[in-house]
Design a protein that fits this description.
With 350 residues, the chain is an alpha/beta fold. It has 2 domains: 141 residues, Rossmann fold (3-Layer(aba) Sandwich); 146 residues, Rossmann fold (3-Layer(aba) Sandwich). Helices cover 43% and strands 16% of the residues. It contains 13 helices and 11 strands. The strands form 2 sheets. The chain has a 6-stranded mixed beta sheet, sandwiched between helices. A 5-stranded parallel beta sheet has the order 3-2-1-4-11, with helices on both faces. Strand 2, helix 3 and strand 3 form a beta-alpha-beta unit. The longest helix has 19 residues.
Length: 350
């Protein structure tokens, strides 16, 4: 089964509630309708009710919500609760209760509060909002996981074309957020990426800490950073298959791995590629996408307490549908309990 098909099927086995806040965008509504019809998620759309219903009417001949819940932050009974919660989160930064009441009526903030307070299991945004806004609000509202030092990103790169010699899915990290991580941060990025490989690929993670050096073939402070990060990972996850410093060819080609790193645990079969900095990661994923015609799903976020994923502003409805499916699978893995059933919302499954 192809990686994308496996993720969709896994989402369908145990749907979670996902909130979308850019509901005045037709692509979002199209993806929401598909996700609901294909039963991969319970969808909440945040925005102006009249606008959303018109878009649903324009894109669905049956003119039905198909189980989708619609909430307008301007008129929601949740406003008082959300204002107080957001005020408590941000008062140390000088926010007043009045300012919080205004801020939570913005769909992005309202959507993430639905996740934070258990009305939804995950959120997806970024078709309209910038990555900076999506990430900043997710950190402010949902928060960084106690297991993580920082929020980073990854792309799920899919290679399933007949001409692809390397087939399947690979996690690329970090290609979208952390510009120049130190050794501790790089280790955190790699461990989060390994956990996502386990959840999304259904495989044991095999991590390549990419460098211009393989197994100590070059001496430089940039190589030292990668090696030091690898040592931190090995101490924290001793059973993880990881190559401490490895060039890309040795990470993905078994014959080259045998020559350059005969003692490698990964043996040229990496499914997690960890780039030493954002410059390398961003160039790497775009090379794979544009020159090798790999499908890039993301940027997806890691390190948050609950899932909140970003979209490219150039995405289409199909891209959004796939990110919804990924967010559901991440939520399944995190396995947070749902809030008590509320008459305000569609019941969230436990």
């Amino acid at each position: 089964m192809k990686v994308i098909d496996r993720i969709i099927e896994q989402a369908r086995l145990s749907p979670r509630t996902i909130v979308l806040c850019e509901s005045d965008d037709e692509r979002i509504v199209q993806a929401a309708l598909r996700a609901s019809k294909e039963k991969i998620a319970h969808i909440i759309l945040v925005g102006k009710i009249k606008t959303i219903l018109k878009l649903i009417n324009d894109n669905d001949a049956t003119n039905t919500l198909n189980g989708i819940t619609v909430i307008d932050p301007e008129h929601s009974p949740l406003v008082t609760e959300f204002s107080q919660v957001f005020f408590e989160k941000r008062k140390h930064k000088g926010m007043t209760l009045e300012a919080a009441a205004l801020a939570i009526k913005k769909p992005l903030c309202f959507a993430n509060l639905l996740v934070d307070l258990g009305y939804a299991h995950g959120s997806v945004a970024g078709a309209v909002n910038t990555t900076a806004d999506v990430v900043r609000n997710a950190i402010q509202v949902i928060g960084v996981s106690p297991e993580a030092k920082l929020v980073s990103s990854f792309f799920l790169m899919i290679m399933c074309q007949p001409f692809h010699q390397l087939k399947g899915g690979i996690i690329f990290s970090d290609c979208g957020l952390v510009i120049d991580p130190n050794a501790e941060e790089l280790a955190d990025i790699a461990m989060a990426a390994a956990r996502n490989a386990q959840a999304l690929l259904g495989e044991e993670p095999k991590v390549a800490m990419l460098s211009f050096s393989t197994n100590g073939s070059a001496k430089h402070s940039a190589v030292d950073k990668v090696v030091n990060a690898s040592n931190i990972i090995k101490a924290a996850m001793p059973h993880l298959a990881i190559d401490a410093d490895v060039q890309l060819d040795a990470a993905i080609v078994a014959d080259i791995a045998e020559k350059k790193g005969p003692n490698s645990k990964v043996k040229g079969q990496s499914n997690v590629l960890v780039f030493p900095n954002l410059e390398a990661g961003n160039i790497g994923y775009k090379l794979a996408e544009r020159m090798a015609q790999a499908t890039a799903i993301g940027p997806l976020l890691q390190g948050l307490t609950k899932p909140a994923n970003d979209l490219s502003r150039g995405c289409n409805a199909g891209d959004i549908f796939l990110v919804i499916a990924v967010t559901v699978v991440q939520a399944q893995t995190m396995n947070h309990s749902a809030r008590e059933q509320s008459s305000l919302l569609t019941p969230i499954p436990a």
